[in-house]
Each structure stands twice: as structure tokens, then as C-alpha cells.
Specification:
The structure holds two protein chains of two kinds. Helix content of chain A is about 85%, strand content about 0%. Chain A is mainly α. Chain A has one domain. Chain A is elongated and about 70 Å long. Chain B has one domain: lambda repressor-like DNA-binding domains (434 Repressor (Amino-terminal Domain), Orthogonal Bundle), CATH 1.10.260.40. Chain B is about 50% helix and about 10% strand. Chain B contains five helices and two strands, in the order βαααααβ. Classes of the chains: A mainly alpha, B mainly alpha. At the A-B interface, helix 6 of A face helix 3 of B.
Chain lengths: ~160, ~80
């Protein structure tokens, strides 16, 4: 149980604000990674032992990286909208179920891409893929719980 | 929803307004409107009992079953 003095400085709204700020920071980090994409790919090709080599590998890694970045931006945008609705006390609404579905699919697609890259090019990417896959699964379970809650809330709201 | 609530018919027969009925039954006019417009998903027995008492009728006078398609559509994956 948190001490009482903590309740004065920390509350639910501030917790939501912190999460929202973290989402924006991660989005900024993604933007920086996009700008530095060619350098990151160059570093990986120079310094890491890849399974396949050739001129096309760098371009393929760059394209995969940008596709993953696009998925990350889409995921973060949905997370931002989701947090905004939570702040407005719209919790069990169909829009949140849709947002969680989009987040889950973004993670699943990123997982598939990373697993493929891990198997073909560089194994550590596969670990990122597995982590993203687990994240997709967890978010999907939360999405199912939210969908059920929305159904129950509708039932309750229209019970006279 | 294949169950329809014929509340407006009974109200017209008994010549009673929505505000007065809501007050007698003990529900808000907004909830009575949900019932009247067939938007309700469920009715408590206590509400049904109060309605029957206020309108001096039987539950069958208020509720009607018409077979038809369910309105719940499939969920996206």
C-alpha cells in the first residue's frame, strides 16, 4: 500500500500523463531512428556477423526497418488516442477495442517481419520478433477483455 | 431485438403521460424513453412489476415476441 503523502503528489491523471509523455518520447526516438536509419544499417552490416552478405542486404534491412517504424508509429498513434480517451473517462467504448486491435496487429506484423529477418539475416532480430509476438498476444487478450466489457456495459446501460 | 415493448399502446389506453408514469414506476424519464423506443436490452422484474401495477395490466400486455434476425453482427478479427 502506498504511503498517504504519495497520494497528494501522485494520482491517476498524473499516471496517465506520464504514460502519454512516454509514448511521445518513444515516438520521438522512433523518428530519430528513422533519420539515422542508413547509419544504423551501415553499423549492423560493418560490425555484426550476418548470415547473408551482399549489396541487397543493406537495402532490405533498411526497408524492413522503415516498415517496422511505420508499424511503430501506427501503434503509438493508437496508444496515444487510447490514453486520450482514458483521460476523458471513456474506458469501455468500442473505439478503445478498435485501438487495441490495431496495436495488437501492429505488434504481430512487426513480430513476423523481425522473425523472418532473424532467421534469414541476423539471429538477434528473431528475439525482438518473439518479444513483439508475446506483446501482440497480451494486447489481443486485453482487447478481448475490453470487447466483453463493452458488451456488458451496453447491456447494463440499457437495463431498465 | 425480437422482443418489442408496447408501452405506448398501454399508456394511450390508460391515458397516462410519460412523466407521470415514470414517477409512479420510480424510474427516470430517460429510462422510460429507452423502454418506449424499444432500445432496452433487459427489463428488471421489479420494473415490470411496477409498470404492470401502474398501468393495471399483465406483462403480456406490454411485451410481444416477433421472430426476426438478431442485431448482433460479427466482430472484426
Amino acid at each position: 500500500m502506498a504511503p498517504k503523502c504519495l497520494d497528494k503528489v501522485w494520482n491517476e491523471q498524473r499516471s496517465l500523463l506520464l504514460t502519454d509523455v512516454l509514448v511521445l518520447l518513444i515516438a520521438a526516438a522512433c523518428a530519430v531512428a528513422c533519420v539515422c536509419g542508413p547509419h544504423i544499417v551501415g553499423y549492423v552490416i560493418r560490425e555484426r556477423p550476418l548470415n547473408v552478405n551482399g549489396p541487397a542486404v543493406g537495402a532490405a534491412l533498411l526497408v524492413i526497418g522503415y516498415v517496422c517504424a511505420a508499424l511503430a508509429f501506427w501503434m503509438l498513434y493508437n496508444l496515444h488516442r487510447f490514453l486520450r480517451r482514458l483521460k476523458a473517462e471513456q474506458v469501455f467504448v468500442p473505439e478503445n477495442v478498435t485501438a487495441l486491435r490495431h496495436i495488437s496487429w501492429s505488434c504481430a506484423l512487426a513480430a513476423a517481419l523481425c522473425l523472418l529477418t532473424g532467421v534469414v539475416v541476423y539471429l538477434p532480430y528473431a528475439f525482438i520478433g518473439v518479444a513483439a509476438g508475446f506483446m501482440a498476444l497480451i494486447v489481443r487478450a486485453i482487447k478481448n477483455a475490453f470487447a466483453q466489457a463493452v458488451r456488458m456495459k451496453n447491456e447494463l446501460d440499457y437495463t431498465v | 431485438m425480437p422482443i418489442t415493448v408496447n408501452l405506448d399502446i398501454m399508456m394511450a389506453r390508460r391515458r397516462i403521460g410519460a412523466g407521470e408514469l415514470a414517477e409512479r414506476v420510480g424510474i427516470t424519464p430517460a429510462n422510460l424513453s429507452i423502454l418506449k423506443n424499444n432500445k432496452a436490452r433487459a427489463v428488471r422484474f421489479s420494473t415490470l412489476e411496477a409498470l404492470c401495477k401502474a398501468l393495471d395490466c399483465q406483462p403480456a400486455d406490454l411485451l410481444e415476441y416477433t421472430p426476426g434476425p438478431d442485431d448482433g453482427g460479427p466482430e472484426a478479427p
